[in-house]
Write a structure and sequence with these properties.
The protein has 498 residues and is of the alpha+beta class. Helices cover 34% and strands 25% of the residues. The longest helix has 23 residues.
């Protein structure tokens, strides 16, 4: 039983204390990471008197076996692993062999898998050819009071793995590798933008008016100001105000919050990248984004061909452009430019989509597309020519005001990025916000709000610009994992107390 194991480990903790050993010292001595010791093994191993070659390693014990007066330890740090060999008569710093054997017995009887130790010693190769460290001095750095999950079976229950992610990372090399790759993913995106001359900025998480997306926000109370604020659902509005301020290339990588349902593709809080580029448009933006994606995917995955749900996804080819309006008419059987809201609502009902009563025309078009057409788009494509009703912040097309200058990156049956030429006509923007407010009054909780502060900024003048956003959903798809498994500590319902 776990309770008995913890009790036994507490006894061992007390044995160290009784022997005058501090089981949680403030300082550790380390001269080499394990990978560094192994990389310099030939120059560090015994070739002359041992005292000239002594190194110090700090590591966690992942395995141990004791055979009489010799103990073998599987030592691991973040960089690698090495075998530690402790002999009773090899310890230095004690005047008598008896005292050395007493120290050996203390470690032999009271160390456990999971403990952290500092070992000082010399490198050598065993008769079986294993690179090892012969331990001359040893200190306990941390006495672990709970046992680690088995390194062979790990944490099999998904909920437990996500709640105790630190144990999942510790015992599962695949999980550890995911978060190393995630660092590469965001770092490469940042470098692509910085090389292009973009300035990284930070904007507020709390907003008086949430905007920039169709989503229901979280609400929080600000005690000092005695006012309720919304947690941002997008980075868009604040960054576009920076275009008004005179910046021409800006971006932010930040956390956003949407009070929506959980699915393999959705979380309530997640990281998003958005960037805005003055004097560019949808067409030039698509070229830059395709190049940026390919560079990021190659560095993150090592290849532009990835495996997703037993399918080969080729990001390396030139991405096809698909006309949203044409494929909608072809697959749904309706021309959204000619039909009204009621006909779209009936079609959604007929398809078994259970549309909410308050949804407007644009949201119904989007619902039909997401549920029926998008899952069939597996290889990377650009979707263009969307209806104006589904993107109130995008610029209308000059030749057809019912469509917007927007593109979506779709692959693996889902949206993996979105960009558009930005609406900057304050009169048109107000009209479109008012249409959104009418939808809210009709029961659509995710329709956008009228933002007077943003409209005022537009009235000062925002240059023509293109903007783009992507979330960590792209990384999850690249890893072929549900998105919450690519987040270190996903938010979960609190566990029931035993």
């Amino acid at each position: 039983m776990l309770k008995d194991i913890i009790q036994e480990r507490r006894k061992k903790l007390n044995n160290f204390i009784k022997a005058g050993v501090e089981p949680y010292p403030e300082k550790a001595e380390r001269t080499h990471k394990i990978s560094e010791a192994l990389a310099s093994f030939s120059s560090l191993q015994i070739r002359q008197p041992a005292e000239h070659k002594k190194i110090f390693i700090c590591a966690r014990i992942f395995g141990m076996r004791v055979m009489g007066n010799i103990a073998f330890y599987d030592l691991r740090d973040e960089s690698g692993k090495i075998q530690g060999v402790l002999k009773a008569d090899a310890l230095v710093g004690s005047p008598t062999l008896r005292r050395r054997k007493d120290i050996f017995a203390l470690f032999k009887e009271n160390l456990d898998i999971g403990d952290f130790v500092e070992v000082g010693g010399v490198l050598f190769t065993t008769k079986t050819g294993e690179k090892s460290v012969e331990i001359k001095s040893m200190r306990i750095l941390v006495k672990a009071l709970r046992p680690l999950p088995s390194q062979w079976y790990g944490l099999e229950d998904v909920e437990t793995r996500l709640r105790k992610r630190y144990l999942d990372v510790l015992t599962n090399p695949e999980t550890k590798e995911i978060f190393i790759k995630k660092n590469i993913f965001w770092r490469t995106l940042r470098e692509c933008l910085q090389k292009e001359g973009f300035l990284e900025v930070e904007t507020p998480v709390l907003e008086a008016t949430p905007g920039g997306a169709d989503a229901e926000p979280f609400i929080t109370h600000h005690n000092a100001l005695d006012h309720n604020f919304y947690m941002r659902i997008s980075l868009e509005i604040a960054l576009k105000k920076m275009l008004v301020a005179g910046y021409e290339k800006i971006f932010e990588i930040g956390r956003i919050f949407r009070n929506e349902g959980i699915s393999p593709e959705h979380l309530q809080d997640y990281t998003q990248l958005e960037f805005y580029w003055a004097y560019e448009n949808q067409d030039t933006l698509m070229k830059f984004v395709e190049k940026m994606y390919k560079e990021t995917i190659k560095k993150t995955c090592g290849s532009l061909i990835i495996n997703w749900q037993n399918k080969k996804i080729n990001w390396g080819k030139k991405w096809q452009k698909i006309d949203y309006s044409k494929i909608f008419k072809e697959k749904i059987g309706l021309d959204f430019n000619k039909v009204g809201r009621d006909e779209l609502f009936k079609k959604a009902q007929k398809e078994g989509l259970k549309p909410e009563v308050g949804l407007g025309k644009g949201r119904l078009v989007d619902l039909l597309f997401k549920k029926i057409i998008r899952p069939t788009l597996i290889q990377p494509v650009f979707l263009i020519n969307q209806p104006a009703e589904i993107e109130p912040l995008a610029k209308r097309q000059e030749k057809n005001k019912n469509l917007v200058c927007r593109f979506q990156i779709v692959a693996c049956g889902t949206e993996l990025g979105k960009g558009f030429s930005e609406a900057n006509d304050p009169i048109d923007q107000r009209q479109r916000f008012e249409e959104q407010m009418a939808l809210r009054e009709g029961g659509d909780k995710e329709a956008q709000r009228l933002d007077e502060d943003f409209l005022e900024a537009l009235e000062y003048g925002m240059p023509p610009a293109a903007g783009f956003g992507l979330s960590e959903r792209l990384f999850a798809i690249l890893m072929d994992k549900p998105v919450r498994e690519t987040v270190i500590f996903p938010l979960m319902r609190p566990a029931k107390k035993e």
